[in-house]
Amino acid sequence: MNKKRLLAAAMSVLVAGSMLLAGCGQKDVKQAGSKPEGAAYKFRLAESNPAEHPVTLGDKKFAELVKERSNGRITIDVFSGAQLGEEKAVLEQVQLGAIEFTRVSASPLGEFNKQMSVFSLPYLFDSEEHMWKFLKGEMGEKMLNDLQPSRMKGLAYYTGGARSFYSVKPLTGIDSLKGLKIRVMQNKINMDMVAALGGSATPMPAGEIFSALQTGVIDGAENNYPTFVAQNHYQSAKHYILDAHQRIPEVLLISKVIWDKLSPEDQKLIKQAALDSVDYQRDIWAKTEKEAEAKVRDAGVTITEVKDLKPWQAAVKPVIDKYSADFKEALDGIDKARK
């Protein structure tokens, strides 16, 4: 982190602390560590997706449950559309406690906690059901808890669907990716994956993709149907190939700085509200995914289904082999979840 960013983050911490004290009143602060009817809190949750994206709606459901169960004592304002910054910058703020909550993809989170990078491996999960069996199991919960040395506390996973490639140029098969400039999340595994498939990986923040597609800085990108539509990328990228190369879960987080200041009762309330928001988010995702697919087809986007994934899986096998030793425990758990 450079000196300017560190200074800005420190100022944000001071401002956030001042707001908290002003909002609570001195009496409430004294009671924060005792009983759940003690301190009042006004927190922020940073979200990079638009307001009506199914992941953002999951955030809002979580905030609603927290407010309801605390009788309005704990409020969480969701700032969508990257109002508080792109994911990597927000994570740095969360580490400092300047931003209390965020929702991020597990992929950029891997830059802060190496084990989260396992989710970026291509063709890791056989299906959505396989992924959730793992995430809801002992190893999935362990990975959330293991974020604490990175000064974050994992609360719950949300679905991010299956990611596939889209481009301004025709995509008819794996050979179509050769030479294409493909935007990827800022993660080394993603870059290696695109290179293995013959493309030229171009890491950049999500907020820059729309203009990059329009200006030819990139030829394409990769994501799920809801994000493809919500970010309006389908307006330029008229070719979408359903290779489903990744299923990367979303992660709902709280700053450990903030978590450690909460009473045990409030910690339990917030954790349970996060878990209870998951089914809602998954349901709204499934509904939105169908609506997004219909909108894309109506807009004239050419959708190509991949009937044989074997060539794709064979192409990325060197990537899996390269990183598998780094994630042995998680990979063993993912394999057991198949049974």
Structure, explained:
This protein folds into two domains: 3-160 and 248-287, 3-Layer(aba) Sandwich (D-Maltodextrin-Binding Protein, domain 2); 163-247 and 291-336, Bacterial extracellular solute-binding protein, family 7 (D-Maltodextrin-Binding Protein, domain 2, 3-Layer(aba) Sandwich). The chain is built from 15 helices and eleven strands. The protein has helices at 3-24, 26-30, 54-69, 87-96, 106-109, 128-135, 138-145, 188-196, 209-215, 225-230, 256-259, 264-276, 278-298, 310-323, 328-336, and strands spanning 41-46, 74-79, 101-105, 152-158, 163-167, 181-184, 200-203, 220-223, 239-246, 250-255, 302-305. The strands form three sheets. It has a five-stranded mixed β-sheet with strand order 2-1-3-10-4, with helices on both faces. Strands 8-5-9-11 form a four-stranded mixed β-sheet. Helix 3 packs antiparallel against helix 12, helix 3 packs antiparallel against helix 13 and helix 8 (188-196) runs antiparallel to helix 14. It starts with a helix and ends with a helix. The model is unreliable at 1-36 (pLDDT under 50).
